Amino acid sequence: MKKTFLAAAFAATVALALSGPAAAQDRGGTLKFARYDGSKLIDPIYAERNPDIWMVGSLFSTLLERKGEGAALTGALASTYTQSADGKTIELTLRDGIRFSDGSPLTAQDVVFSLDRARNKDLSPWAGLLASIATVTGEGAKVTITLSRPDPTILSMLATFNTAIVSRAAFEKAPGATDQEKSAALFAAGGPGAGTGPFYLSGFEQGASMSFKANPYYWKSGADGKPLPYLDGVEFQIIPDDATRILKLQAGEVDIAEFIPFARIAELGTDPDLKMELFPSTRIIYAPINTRATRADGTPNPLADKRVRQALNYATNKEALVSLVLHGAGAPMTSPLMSSSTPMAVRTDPLYGYDPVKAMELMQAAGFAAGTKIKLTTLAGSADDATVFAALQQMWTAVGVELVAEQVDSPTRGAKNRSGEFDIHTYGWVDDIADPSQVVGWLGHTPTAKAVGTGWENKEFNELYDTAAAEMDPERRAAQFRRMQEIYAEEAPLLFMYETPFAVALSAKVTGYVQTPLGANVFEEASLQR
C-alpha cells in the first residue's frame, strides 16, 4: 500500500470524524462488534487497560470534550466554562436537563463526587494527572475547581476518560464495603444508572461477551433532531484470534472487526461487502536503547555513546520496516517523542532517514568495534517483532553490529526495562490524553519513568519539562516542547521506528463508527443501514 493511499485514507477518516454522519441515518438495530480482548472494569478511575479505557466514553460523559483530531475543547456535560487569568480557578455551568441512564438528574454533587474519586491517589492510577486540583465544590448548576498551581493540562483532563462523571447515588447504593468493591459490583450487575453516556452496560460475561443498550436519556441529538444514539445497542464478542474475527465478519456474523492484521488490509479492501478503515492513531512503535555507561553485567556499554545510537537510527531503513511489518499501512515516526497526531508534535521528515554511509562514519568516529554483539529483546510469539529483528539483523551487519535475539514474555520485558537489564528492546505507546505531557514525560523525563527505562538523563530536558508543566502561555509551552523534541532527536535514546493506524474492517451497512486517535471506540453516531 502506497504512502499516498495511506495519507488519503487518513484524511478521509479525519473528515468523517469531523463531519459526522449523513442526515439519512437509519435508526434501530444492534451492532455486533468483534473485539481482540475483553473489558474487565469500565470505571473511569480504574480503567487501566486499553480494552477498558476505550469503552469508557460509551457509558460515561465528561464535562468537556473534543469533537475531532486537533479540535478545540468544547462543553459537554458543562454548557460553559471559564478559567481565571492566573489559571488557578475553573468555573463550569452544567447543561440543563442532563439525566443519568436511569432517569435521575445530574447534579453538581455528582461532579464533586466523581472528581474527588478521580484525584484520590489511593484509588486511581490516573490520580497524578489531577494533582494540581486543590478543591472541587458545587452548588446548583455551578461547579468550581481550584488549583494549587497553574496547570496547562487541566482543561484537557476534564475531557479525558478518567474524569468522566459517575452517579453518586448509584455508586453509594451498590453493595460493597470499599470503593473498589462497589465499582466491581456495579460493573458485574450492569443496568442503567451509573453514567450519562450514549449507552449503558446491559450484560457482561468475563472473557466472552458484553452488551450495551441505548441510554433513553442521552443528552445529544442526531442529524434527524432526535436523541442519539441511532442504534438500539451494541453486542461485543471477544475473539482473540485475528483470522476468526475476519471470518465472522465475512460471514455476516459480526458487523465490525478490530485490529485487522496489516497483511490482510489490501485483501479486505477489495471486498465489496466490506469497508476497510485506517483510523489515524497516536500509536508509535519504537525501541528503547540502554544508555547507561555499563551493562547490567558490569561490562562497558557501547550504546552509551550517542554517536552509536545515532548510527543505529541511520542504519535502519524505516520505510522498509513499514513495508515489511505494516505492509505499507503506516509511516516512519517524524517526531522523536510522539506521534504526528499528538498536539505540539514537530514533524521532521525524515527523522533519521536511511543513510548507511553516515551510519558507518558515526560508528568509526565512536570507535565501535566491528562484530560487537548487541542484544534485541523481543516478545516471544510476536510475528511483528520477529520481522523487525530479522530486518535489523541484516541492516545493522553493514555497520559492524552482530545483533542477537532474546525472546521473552511481556511481564519479563517490562521487568528488564525497569531494571536496565537490556541493550535494546521493542516497545510501543498509545496516548491516553490529548496533550503531549504524558508521552513526553514517559519517554524523556527522568523522574517520571527513567526516560522509558533507558537511563538517559538530560538536565535541560528535565528543566524544560518541569517548566512546561506550569506554563499557561500556549506559544511558550509549544516552544518548550519543540526544544525537548530537538534535544531528544539529537541524543537518540530510542530507535525511532514507525507509527501505525487503527485498522478496522466494517460491514458496508455500517456508517458513523469512529475510532479516535486515542483509541476510543465511538458508537454514539453509528448506525446500520436497512
UniProtKB/TrEMBL annotation:
One of its GO terms (molecular function) is peptide transmembrane transporter activity. One of its GO terms (biological process) is peptide transport. Gene3D superfamilies: Dipeptide-binding Protein, Domain 3 (3.10.105.10), Periplasmic binding protein-like II (3.40.190.10). Its main location: periplasm. Belongs to the bacterial solute-binding protein 5 family. This is ABC transporter substrate-binding protein. The keyword Signal applies. It comes from the Bacteria. Keywords: Signal, Transport. GO terms for cellular component: ATP-binding cassette (ABC) transporter complex; outer membrane-bounded periplasmic space. It is found in: Periplasm. InterPro entries: Peptide/Ni-bd, SBP_5, SBP_5_dom.
